Structures are given as C-alpha cells and as structure tokens.
Amino acid sequence: MVTVKKKSAAAIAGFVLFLQGPMPAWAQEAVEDVQNTQAQTEVTAKASTEEAIEKAEEQVQQLEAQIEEYKKKVAEFDDLLSKISETEKGFENVEKDKEKELLEAENALKMDSEAAKVKIAEFEKSKEEKDNELIGLKAAYELLKEQYDHAKLALDALQS
Fold it and tell me: Is residue 82 in some structural domain?
C-alpha cells in the first residue's frame, strides 16, 4: 500500500470526484480532514497574525510613549541647561563687577597712598618749619631772659 499525504489525497479525491461522480468514503474523509486542517490552520494563522499585529501596535504605543518621555526629558534638560547658562552669566557679571570694584579700590588706595605721601611731605616741611621756629623762639627766650636778668640786676643796683 502507498502512503499518501492528506492534501494529496484530497486533491486526488477531488479529481476522482470530478471524473467519477460519487466519491468513495475514504476520499470523502480525506477531503473533510484536509478542509478541517486548512480551516484550523487559517484560524491559527489569522489568530497569530492578529496577535502579532496587536503586539506590534502595543510596541508602537510603548515606543511612542517612550519617545514622548524622552522629549519631555530633553525639554527639561534644555530648561536646566538654559538656567545653568543664565546662572553662569550672572556669576560672570558679578565676578566682573567685583573685579571692577577691586580695581577701583586699588586705584583709590593708590590715590590715598599718594595723597598720604604728599600730606606726609607737607607735614614734614611744616614740622621742620615749626622746629626752626621753636629753636628761634627758644633763642629769643634765652635772650629775653638774659635781658630780664640784666634789667633786674640794674634795677636792684638802682634801688640799692
């Protein structure tokens, strides 16, 4: 006996049926088995295709959700970067202002130092003048004291 596959048997049975008219029982069973198998295969194929489509749609939705999350994160990072750059610019401005203030203070200190040097020189001149004047006054005092002493002696001599 020859082994024949169900599909082949069904094809043969269909061909025989076409040629003869009534189909033998074994051929009819083979045709029914093949038709049932094809129907189940089609249902399974359709079901697996539908499941694959649903899974693909779910994956697409998940990917779209991830893309939206990434877009939000990128927007947050952009905001954060802009805030950081603004803060850096603020710090740079503050730093420049502090440098200007420091330069102004150094210039003022130099001016104050120069002014102080000028005042010290003026004070030293004034001190020398006052010292010279004091020396002159001491000499005048000594001279006047001598004159007083002579005048007193002369007065005492006149009185005696």
Answer: yes
Show the tokens assigned to 78.
Answer: 């952009």
Q: Is residue 1 part of a domain?
A: no
The three-class DSSP label of residue 92 is helix
In a domain, 113, yes or no: yes
In the DSSP assignment, the letter for residue 153 is H
- Residue-wise pLDDT for 51-77, tens only, equals 888 888 999 999 999 999 999 988 888
Q: What's the chain's Rg over C-alpha atoms?
A: 62
What range defines the domain where residue 92 resides? Answer: 6-159
- CA atoms within 13 Å, Cβ hemisphere of 4: 15
The whole-angstrom separation of Cα 142 and Cα 16 is: 168
User: In terms of pTM, does the model score above 0.85?
Assistant: no
Per-residue DSSP letters for 20-45?
A: HSSPPHHHHHHHHHHHHHHHHHHHHH
Helix (H/G/I), strand (E/B), else coil: 22: coil
Query: What is the count of structural domains for the chain?
Result: 1
DSSP label of 2 = -
The answer to whether residues 30 and 6 touch, using CB atoms and an 8 Å cutoff, is yes
Dihedral of alpha carbons 51, 56, 58, 59, sign = positive
Q: What is the pLDDT of residues 133-150, one digit of tens each?
A: 889 888 888 888 888 888
Token pair of 126 as six digits: 């004034």
